[in-house]
Write a sequence for this structure.
């Protein structure tokens, strides 16, 4: 028992270091994904013209992602529109007020159960296996330790969005 008590500070330190390393990895991944979303906004074309005075909204029900995106994308613009990142509740009303909705692994089950899919004029991006088959349009995945993405152009078209060929050349193009 005494031996365990002697080692307790070291065990706690190891757990703390592991947790903080894990948190930093998630933070770095979310910064990169926020950058991808920004570029999807820049190179996507929404068929229903937006109010050019309204901000361009990247939304997510994952508060941690939104906090990281706010720091990473501060002061950015999409064409002439100011970029904002909004934390939202998942429902048709809130998602229709967004230009892009990012569904993280943490919020996928809620998104799937609410059936908030196929919202016209909204780009749906996720990171969970099966996301595109469940109604999403773009999905992030890891390959050789790097973030990659796949796009279903037919699903984007159904939502009234087209993606630049510059982006599609970098993507794995899939059918929905």
């Amino acid at each position: 028992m005494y031996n365990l008590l002697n080692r307790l500070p070291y065990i706690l330190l190891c757990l703390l270091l592991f947790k903080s390393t894990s948190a930093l990895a998630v933070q770095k991944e979310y910064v990169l994904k926020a950058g991808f979303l920004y570029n999807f906004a820049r190179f996507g074309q929404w068929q229903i013209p937006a109010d050019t005075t309204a901000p361009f909204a990247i939304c997510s029900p994952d508060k941690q992602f939104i906090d990281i995106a706010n720091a990473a994308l501060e002061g950015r613009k999409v064409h002439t529109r100011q970029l904002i990142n909004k934390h939202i509740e998942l429902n048709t009303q809130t998602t229709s007020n967004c230009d892009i909705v990012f569904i993280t692994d943490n919020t996928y089950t809620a998104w799937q159960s609410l059936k908030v899919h196929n919202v016209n004029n909204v780009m749906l991006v996720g990171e969970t296996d099966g996301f595109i088959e469940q109604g999403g349009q773009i999905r992030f995945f890891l390959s050789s330790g790097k973030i990659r993405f796949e796009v279903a152009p037919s699903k984007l078209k159904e939502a009234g969005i087209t993606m630049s060929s510059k982006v599609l050349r970098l993507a794995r193009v899939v059918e929905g």
User: Anything to note?
Assistant: The CA atoms of residues 34 and 69 lie 5 Å apart. The chain has one domain: 31-173. The chain has six helices and ten strands.
